[in-house]
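[agent] plan:
  1. take the single chain provided in the ticket
  2. run structure prediction with default settings
  3. attach structure tokens to the ticket
  4. add a short note for the reviewer (M.T.)
[agent] executing step 1
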Amino acid sequence: MKHIHRLILLSATYRQSSAANTEGRARDAGNRLQWRYSPRRLDAEPLRDAYLAVSGKLDLRMGGPGFDLFEPNTNYVKVYNPKKEFGPNEWRRMIYQSKWRMQLDDVFGAFDCPDAGQIAPKRTTSTTPLQALNLLNSRFMVQQSKFFAERVEREAKGEAAQVQRAFRLAFQREPTPTEQAGAVRLVREHGLAALCRALFNANEFLFVD
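[agent] step 2 finished; step 3 output follows
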């Protein structure tokens, strides 16, 4: 089979970029013919890990006990009160989160993350107002935006350089001139944390293109 694998992997079709182009959009805007890899939103676990990685707080330590996103209690019946404050114990990869049956965490549970009380061979993908509100207003996201801003301030000096560094960390690219001008204006009026929060909420961060 190796010669067939080599033929497929070296073909122009296999190696073409998944980026959209004018000709492709004109002929098949809905990608019905699969001329490119359609953008897909990150699942709950890699999305949370990505926020922690960009803010500089992701704990890559492997193994050991997991972490819980609910407040501890000694009730006879477990009461699920979501944590309001997050520290290093909650900054591990989400694969180490203690998974409770029939209960999802407050922020990323809205991103079609199945609970542990049922079999989910395939996840659904939905778009809901709650997802946007969680990423914009939750304490976790506000906290990580602040940490992101602190990281950028450590690694770059001056508004222009900080905007460029923030775009590189969040999107792995340089900002366009229009984005640069608008971002500098936002930083001057509302602070660097506001820009970091906006980048965290951008479709470019949530979707793999």
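[agent] step 4 note for reviewer: Residues 84 and 176 are 37 Å apart (CA to CA).
[agent] ticket updated
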